Amino acid sequence: MSVLTEEQTILKDQVSNWVRDEASVTRFRQMRDSNPDFGFESGTWNSICDLGLAGLLIPEAYGGSGMDFKTLGVVLEQLGRGLTASPLVASGVVGASAVLLGGSEDQKRQWLPRIASGEVVATLAVDEKARHGPEYTALAASREESGFLLKGGKCFVPEGMAANLLIVAARTGGQPGDHGGITLFLVDGEATGVERTRLSLVDHRGHADIEFSDVVVSDGNILGTVDQGFELLDKVLDRGRAALSAEMLGIGAEAFDRTLEYLKTREQFGQMIGSFQALGHRAATHFMDMEFARSSVEGALEGIDLGSEDLAKLCSLAKCQVGDFLYNMSNDMIQMHGGIGMTDEFDAGFFLKRARVAEATYGNRAFHLDRYIATEGI
Fold first, then answer.
1. How far apart are CA 315 and CA 109, in angstroms?
2. Segment 31-48, tens digit of pLDDT
3. Per the structure, how many domains does the chain have?
4. pLDDT, tens digit, for every residue of 124-143?
5. Would the pTM count as exceeding 0.90?
6. C-alpha span between 179 and 209 (Å, rounded)
7. Domain span at residue 193?
């Protein structure tokens, strides 16, 4: 674990205290039970925006704080510990990064201040099948006199119910599977022809399928260059992957801490179960895996900040390693707690369910293992 700066330490403590007092796993349970349409509580999101977290990555010139991804990772790890449900990754990271990396000056001034304040929730609509595959984009964008006409569907869109700015990957040329011919568009979530269907996934967050029925998009809402959007899309996705990996690290770290505490306090056969050699070995393995995952996540975040040429490799490595750790840790959290771990009254199930959805978002371990191997030329 790298040493935090004074500013990062202060922010970590601030967010950690806020999560404990206002956005804990208990609050997540309350949100689950109330079943809000957007998959998060508006009060929680408003508090996140009031803390300035929605604009953490956005430069001060556009209403944000202008901090780096390493600092963002510190924040997201703490939010992961509380299973805090919010559009921060989808909007404040992925949406903001798309506009920052591909937007014109007018587009930046139009959208970034509103994303930073939380007035606008942005999200990236990319996947069209059950498995992540950006190059297989098939949603058609046909040229019209007034711009482009979008026709097709996107599935499993994170925060798809809440988003009022949709960043849509569409095909303006080539065939599904080609990197060329993909273009990114800025689409008003309330535009005529945009239809959403809420999805009920196990993590109780606000995912949606979105259908685009002859949605008109003007030339002024093209993000980047027509037909050359895959490189931009990949960069945006990598920022989302690194950010989500930091949240996943927090989920796994909290699961580890809770399980370790249980091993130290639960008595069986007249002694603490943590003294049983088999359980102690498993806990030690999880700790090592957690530290390996932390190193890879920090490497990906720092790679973004430093403009690393190996960024794709670093982000895929992080998603793989933290995915392995979280998968095994969430399973063992259930198993080591025994029968109580299987009950809804106990919180362990929330960690496992969020782990499964987060692991699949922006590419699962199999996707990133293949991608890592490809970057190595193997």
1. 29
2. 999 999 999 999 999 999
3. 3
4. 999 999 899 999 999 999 99
5. yes
6. 23
7. 123-227
